[in-house]
Amino acid sequence: MGDSVGLMRLSVWMHICAFGIILIGAPGVHAWSKEGHVMTCQIAQSLLEDDAAEAVRSLLPDYVNGDLSALCTWPDQIRHWYKYRWTSSLHFIDTPDKACTFDYSRDCHDPHGTEDMCVAGAIQNFTSQLMHYKQGSSDRRYNMTEALLFLSHFMGDIHQPLHVGFTSDEGGNTIQLRWYKHKSNLHHVWDREIILTAAKELYDRDVELFQEDIAKNVTDGIWSDMSSWGECDDLFSCPKKYAAESISLACKWGYKGVTPGETLAEKYFNSRLPIVTKRIAQGGVRLSMILNSVFGNHNQELSAPT
Ligand SMILES: *[C@@H]1O[C@H](CO)[C@@H](O)[C@H](O)[C@H]1NC(C)=O
Ligand SMILES: *[C@@H]1O[C@H](CO)[C@@H](O)[C@H](O)[C@H]1NC(C)=O
Ligand SMILES: *[C@@H]1O[C@H](CO)[C@@H](O)[C@H](O)[C@H]1NC(C)=O
Ligand SMILES: [Zn+2]
Question: Which domain of life is it from (predicted)?
Fold first, then answer.
């Protein structure tokens, strides 16, 4: 890492207005452990411009029929394999307890202190790798398919507020509590419980309907600050901004008022659901923005690192 990268001017809003949302006919959600990632990736893929859409299709293995979301949880499946053990710290960031801030040089490292080995560093890393795609197959240093899947997955993770959480409770993983009637923990509430409860209560158990509702709201631009979602100066500052947003939300909405052992239910669900849906939308919109930028033909200002 440490490559210098030119300005990446990102105008999400323009892309959305110009291209609209074309919902990819998703062939069903395969497993019930990956809803957030699937939604983020489906929203992102629906916002791709032609060049990026084609690049993504060509990088995906044939068996997914061009559906990026089908492989967006691949990095979770392989993180414990020996060959991929180096990726296990790339899914999250541990920040100092109660600090509620993200500082890249302080916080972005693995447990051994190796720099850049966190979700923000990983997004920079795999975005940089994908910038070589247009140079053709002569560059075999990187596996572009893996880079695409890692980037797509980590853009989901960095937007989940509790993936940027306190060190001592492992991002809420050790905060045991009940979600309605069953045992859970605070991290899992944000990974999955809120999404599943929303699907169950509001969308007749159909996660796809939930995702379509978020996608529609992206098209309709219901979030008043949406025009600023794409604002960040360059490849290296964007993930820092996303991580800072997450820890701030984790403090304000995740940890706040939660006592270990208690039962969280309607009140917590109703107040936190809008945060979860917005983060899924932001992750999807910003992933499309990065892919359009990296694979687009018009983007001269994006200079490839060496
Ligand atoms: C970047 O990716 C390469 C593999 O392509 C890996 O060896 C390296 O550890 C990664 N670094 C980060 C910060 O993700
Ligand atoms: C790239 O990675 C994918 C997924 O691990 C693998 O199936 C594929 O064979 C790799 N491609 C090359 C050229 O190594
Ligand atoms: C979509 O927007 C409508 C209108 O603001 C809102 O009632 C609904 O909860 C939103 N749904 C999602 C999933 O964001
Ligand atoms: Zn992950």
Answer: Eukaryota
- Per residue in 10-60, pLDDT (tens digit) is 444 334 433 333 333 333 322 335 899 999 999 999 999 999 999 999 999
Per DSSP, the three-state class of 95 is strand
Does pLDDT of 164 surpass 60? yes
Closest ligand 3 atom to 213 CA: 13
- Return the residue whose CA atom lies nearest to atom 12 of ligand 2: 143
* Sole residue written with tokens 């490559």: 3
Q: Which residue has the higher pLDDT, 152 or 297?
A: 152
Predicted model pTM: 0.88
Cβ contacts of 240 within 8 Å, gap of 6 or more: 102, 104, 120
Query: Is any ligand 1 atom within 6 A of the Cβ of residue 283?
Result: no
Please tell me the number of the ligand nearest to residue 108's CA.
1
Which ligand lies nearest to the CA atom of residue 199 in the structure? 3
Nearest Cα residue to 45 out of 287, 271, 230: 287
